[in-house]
Design goal:
The chain is mainly beta. The protein contains two helices and nine strands; from the N terminus they run H-E-E-E-E-E-E-E-H-E-E.
């Protein structure tokens, strides 16, 4: 009796294993078939960046953005003493304005704001301005590099630019609206 039950349970699985594939994904070209740097073909990459200022208006680091063919590379360097040690939320904001030193509210909200969609781990998101957290060492310095396919450099360089904002606390990538990241402690104009 048990053998018949097991056989009845296994037969449909075996039948499925031998069934032809339905709606197979189209084959992608082999990467070796695409031209690249060894062929003298280089993507047109936009580079932008600028100074990162802290709450007192002093320059605490530098931002470099390189827009490539498959996404955008974000590089942040923070000088010793620039941030409190530990994790900090980091987001791309809608407006390239850091002139309200200390609050940085003129930079607006996140790029690509989605109602209840903030966070890299959010099933309703993420917003295109969401990026991973930055970690500052015991001396307040940091080195950071992240890659995003959620937005392009050209989109950040619209008529009012955009800004990179560093927050006081870590972003949990789920809590609305900013992942519990807290006050804005640093800002860099993009554009």
């Amino acid at each position: 009796m048990i053998r018949k039950a097991l056989l009845a349970a296994v037969l449909p699985l075996v039948a499925c294993a031998h069934a032809p594939a339905q709606d197979a994904a189209p084959a992608l070209p082999d990467a070796s078939e695409l031209p690249g740097p060894s062929d003298g073909v280089f993507p047109s990459m936009m580079r932008t960046g600028g100074d990162i200022v802290g709450v007192d208006g002093a320059v605490i680091g530098a931002l470099n953005i390189l827009d490539g063919p498959n996404g955008m590379l974000i590089e942040v360097t923070i000088n010793p003493g620039g941030l409190a040690p530990g994790w900090h939320g980091l987001h791309l904001h809608q407006v390239g304005d850091c002139s309200d030193t200390g609050t940085f509210k003129l930079s607006g909200g996140h790029v690509g704001k989605i109602e209840d969609g903030h966070g890299l781990l959010n099933p309703r998101g993420p917003e295109s301005g969401d990026v991973p957290n930055i970690w500052a060492a015991a001396d307040g310095s940091a080195g950071y590099e992240a890659f995003s396919t959620l937005i392009t450099g050209a989109e950040l360089l619209d008529e009012d630019g955009s800004a990179l904002i560093i927050h006081q606390n870590r972003d949990d990538h789920l809590t609305q609206p900013i992942g519990g990241a807290g006050p804005r402690v640093a800002c860099a104009v993009i554009g």
